[in-house]
Write a structure and sequence with these properties.
Layout: E1 3-8, E2 11-16, H1 21-27, E3 51-54, E4 61-62, E5 73-75, H2 79-93, H3 111-114, H4 116-121, H5 134-141, E6 165-167, H6 177-185, E7 192-194, E8 201-203, H7 220-224, E9 230-232, H8 236-243, E10 249-254, H9 259-265, H10 275-284, E11 289-292, H11 294-311, E12 317-320, H12 323-332, E13 340-342, H13 346-357, E14 363-368, H14 374-381, E15 386-388, H15 390-400, H16 424-427, E16 439-445, E17 448-455, H17 458-465, E18 474-477
Parallel strand pairs: 1-5, 10-11, 10-14, 12-13, 12-18, 14-15, 17-18
Antiparallel strand pairs: 1-2, 3-4, 3-5, 6-9, 7-8, 16-17
Helix pairs in contact: 8-15, 9-15, 11-13
This protein binds iron/sulfur cluster (2 copies) and FE2/S2 (inorganic) cluster.
FE2/S2 (inorganic) cluster (FES) binds next to loops.
């Protein structure tokens, strides 16, 4: 790859030809704020927060789409640049339903005001992103204390028709991240921009409510939305209440997939929070029984293995534990439905085990996992009482003061020794990604390599179901 030399803030750096200023800056640990940009998706320069000065150019350039060139001199933190970013934030705020600004802490720079726990202790504002909203963070960074422009209050109805993935268009900042993820990565194309000018907004298919739209409830738009405009319905109050109830026994299944997100939310280095600390923090908020998800993973994998063993060599083996994949198949590949074997998710297994063990007790179940579709799955199947993700867990800890502490480490309340996971290479937990091609792998069955593919997003699922599945012996589909 050809290289170019440029300076950023007077520092000489080398970048790859074709890289954006933002990519070159990141590679050299130079911070440029962003809002609409999402790593891995091509930028559209919608928000202009990332603007920088490029010597010789008369206007500010958005760093997320402007390519580096030989001899370029870039300044990212001049007074003019900071003033332009602040003005942009003020304009964005003029069209944002600001639940949090009235507390006067948003633009303030004091140490106390920056501590998100003060937000969580406050009951005035209950925005689902309070404490980790990207817009709120930038307002703090740029001291947006007062809102100089008239608030263009929209009064759109909150779309809670799904009771899981909820849309509040009044908070949308039109960054289009959700549209790109739903369309380009998931290939569902449920979300799009409608209207013009200040009435521009994100709408589900043909302006229908979410429950009647093409949404397959994968939950990835929730994850990428930088503000509280699309969110997974929260149950933090119900979980806190349940944990303190004398009538109910509560059992939580905890997955270690929440740890990377918890590190991020607590602004810690990756790998800092350990699972035992989260077990201890869950005990502290009143949940007495916390079990690992490893047993459920083992039982679910056993089910998948049975299907594989029965079908391998006789017909294409296509397996999934995802209800979002099944919703996607229902809508786009109904003719393939009979060929796909659905096995239980870890959440299904947990719910069934709890049902078996509860006897006369009033047993309530909470699945703590960062699987994006888990909230919608709980709502639609009722397999557990609640599914909470890392963000919700963080907000529960903030509200109850039960943060994972370094010294408080507990073992799980019950552990099983199941031995090794069948078809581990194929069936172990795998993360969603933005790639367009599925992962290919060779798994040894009776000493012979078997060709397998794993889809890590719905775009890859589409590719496989359109015919590529025929190239493989076993295909695993994830949303
Ligand atoms: S949940 Fe998934 S399918 Fe539904 S709108 Fe969001 S990204 Fe699209
Ligand atoms: S709903 Fe969220 S992700 Fe989608 S355009 Fe609005 S602010 Fe951006
Ligand atoms: S992050 Fe570059 S324009 Fe929005």
């Amino acid at each position: 790859m050809a290289e170019v030399k440029l300076t950023i803030n007077g520092k000489q750096i080398t970048a790859e030809k074709g890289q954006t200023i933002l990519q070159a800056a990141k590679a050299n640990n130079i911070y440029i704020p962003t809002l609409c940009h999402f790593e891995g998706i091509e930028g559209r320069a919608n928000c202009r927060i990332c603007v920088v000065e490029v010597e010789g150019m008369r206007t500010f350039q958005p760093a997320c789409v402007t390519k580096v060139s030989e001899g370029m001199a870039v300044n990212t933190e001049t007074e003019r640049v900071r003033a332009a970013r602040k003005a942009t934030l003020e304009l964005i705020m003029a069209h944002h339903a600001v639940d949090c600004h009235h507390c006067m802490r948003i633009g303030s720079s004091s140490e106390q005001s920056l501590d998100p726990k003060f937000c969580e202790m406050c009951f005035w504002c209950d925005c689902e992103r309070d404490g980790f909203c990207e817009l709120q963070t930038l307002n703090r960074e740029y001291h947006v204390d007062v809102l100089p422009y008239i608030q263009h209050e929209h009064d759109y109805e909150t779309d809670d028709s799904l009771d899981s993935v909820i849309r509040n268009p009044n908070k949308c900042i039109k960054c289009r991240r959700c549209v790109d993820v739903c369309g380009e990565v998931q290939t569902v194309h449920n979300l799009s921009m409608a209207n013009r000018g200040r009435d521009i907004m994100v709408v589900p298919e043909m302006g229908k409510p979410m429950a009647e739209s093409a949404c397959v409830r994968c939950g990835h738009c929730v994850d990428v939305c930088p503000v509280g405009a699309i969110y997974m319905k929260e149950h933090k109050d119900e979980v806190i209440y349940m944990a303190h109830s004398y009538e109910d026994d509560v059992v939580a299944q905890l997955s270690d997939d929440v740890l990377p997100e918890l590190d991020k939310l607590y602004k810690l280095e990756p790998g800092t929070i350990r699972i035992g600390q989260v077990v201890s923090a869950l005990h502290k908020i009143g949940i007495k029984n916390v079990v690992s998800d490893e047993h459920a993973a083992f039982l679910a994998a056993q089910q998948a293995a049975e299907v594989i063993d029965k079908k391998l060599g006789k017909e294409p083996v296509i397996i999934t534990d995802s209800s979002a994949v099944m919703n996607f198949v229902d809508r786009y590949f109904p003719e393939m439905k009979g060929q796909i074997s659905k096995y239980d998710s870890k959440q299904d297994v947990f719910g069934k085990l709890a049902e078996e063990f509860k006897g006369e007790k009033r047993l309530k179940t909470v699945n703590v996992t960062n699987v994006k579709e888990a909230g919608a799955e709980a709502k639609e199947t009722g397999n557990v009482d609640y599914a909470i993700n890392a963000r919700e867990l963080y907000r529960i800890f903030m509200r109850t003061g039960g943060a994972p502490a370094r010294k408080n480490v507990c073992a799980f309340d019950k552990s099983w020794n199941d031995g090794s996971l069948p078809y581990a290479q194929l069936l172990k937990s795998k993360a969603w990604n933005l790639e367009s091609d599925p992962e290919e792998l060779a798994v040894l069955v009776d000493g012979k390599p078997v060709k397998c593919a794993v889809a890590h997003n719905l775009g890859q699922v589409r590719k496989l179901l359109e015919g590529d599945y025929k190239k493989y012996d076993i295909v695993r589909l994830m949303a």
